[in-house]
Amino acid sequence: MNRKGILRGLVILVILIVDIGLDQLSKIYVRKHFNFYEVLYPFKSEHFQLVRTENTGAFLSLGDSLGNPWRFILLTLLPAGVLLFGLLYVLLKNNLNKLNALGIVLVLAGGFGNLYDRWVYHSVTDFMFIKFSWAQTGVFNVADMSIMAGVGILLVQSFLKDRQIKNQKQAGNGEKVEV
């Protein structure tokens, strides 16, 4: 492996470790200082709330009523395999552009952060909640924000790539292309 590949791998691992570390630090703080279901308004606004919950399921508590071994297989073992595959993919696929790699790493970091909770604590600590009169979120954590940011980056990259391909096809037909 060349220097560029080693540096790229190190940058990926640093981003992954920092992201997981921030997630775990926030959860440690919440576990230590917050009571279950105690609602706090850190910005004196009812729109953003801090409330500690423990999610024994997956996204929006899906699968929390599953018994073992299915719960372990579907919520721990299978995600661990997918995350490890994703990590190998992003480390070994050298032709990924930087934003796609970042998007994948953010998704992986969030997944590993939540998987660590599930493995060690048998639940995922969630503590942030956003509510407006017309919409609200489920309770989420830093790992979930990382996953959403990563997915957002990947979606924007996909949209931009599709747009670029469309523009190239139009330019190939002799049509005027505006960028």
Give the SSE map:
Elements: H1 3-33, E1 39-40, E2 48-55, H2 70-92, H3 98-121, E3 124-130, H4 142-172
Antiparallel strand pairs: 1-2, 2-3
Helix pairs in contact: 1-3, 2-3, 3-4
Tell me what you see in this structure.
By secondary structure, the chain is mainly α. The chain has helices at 3-33, 70-92, 98-121, 142-172, and strands at 39-40, 48-55, 124-130. Strands 1-2-3 form a three-stranded antiparallel sheet. Strand 1 (39-40) and strand 2 form a beta hairpin. The two termini are 38 Å apart.
- Judged by helices, strands and strand pairing, the structural class is mainly alpha
H and E order: HEEHHEH
Helix content: 55-70%
How widely separated are the two ends? 38 Å
Shape: globular
Number of domains: 1
- Main sheet: which strands, in order across? 1-2-3
Question: Which value, in Å, is the CA radius of gyration?
Answer: 20 Å
Count of DSSP-assigned helices: 4
Report the strand count.
3
Low-confidence stretches: none
**pLDDT average, as an integer?**
89
Major sheet characteristics: 3 strands, antiparallel
Portion of residues in beta strands equals 5-15%
In short, what is this structure?
With 179 residues, the protein is mainly alpha-helical. It is 61% helix and 9% strand.
